[in-house]
Amino acid sequence: MMSTCTVALLQVTSAGLDWAANLTNNPAIDTSQAWSPDGTRIAFETDRDGDFEIYVMNADGSGQTNLTNNPAACDISPTWPPDGTQIFFRSDRGGERFDYKPYVMNADGSDVTGVG
Ligand SMILES: [Ca+2]
Question: What mean pLDDT comes out for the span 7-27?
Fold first, then answer.
């Protein structure tokens, strides 16, 4: 499935797609994987719902959870701060399509806040 978000994801690499496909076992594009600082969880972006969202899963691929759950925006590029309590990501939810701004949320997807 190619969503409109996909067109803007120039950073997607074939290596990243292969890696994510093996672990998530999902035909959608799963990429931008980011390990939590304690090595127990992996955040990633996926268009499996027809729109890019930030998901998190356990290191063995179990417990895949949609954190951003916002079908009106592209949510991409998750990263963890050193304490692992939050996830930073980029989203165009605040303005024009593909005008990505930085956001942060708790690691469970709550309290999404714009950064800067
Ligand atoms: Ca989204």
Answer: 51
Q: How far apart are CA 40 and CA 88, in angstroms?
A: 17
Handedness of CA 87, 30, 1, 67 (dihedral sign): negative
pTM: 0.80
CA of 52 to the centre of ligand 1 (A): 5
For ligand 1, the distance from its centroid to the CA atom of residue 3, given in whole angstroms, is 11
> How close is the Cα of 72 to the center of ligand 1, in Å?
6
Indicate the number of domains in the chain. Answer: 1
Residue 53 lies in a domain: yes
What is the Å distance from ligand 1's center to 109 Cα?
A: 12
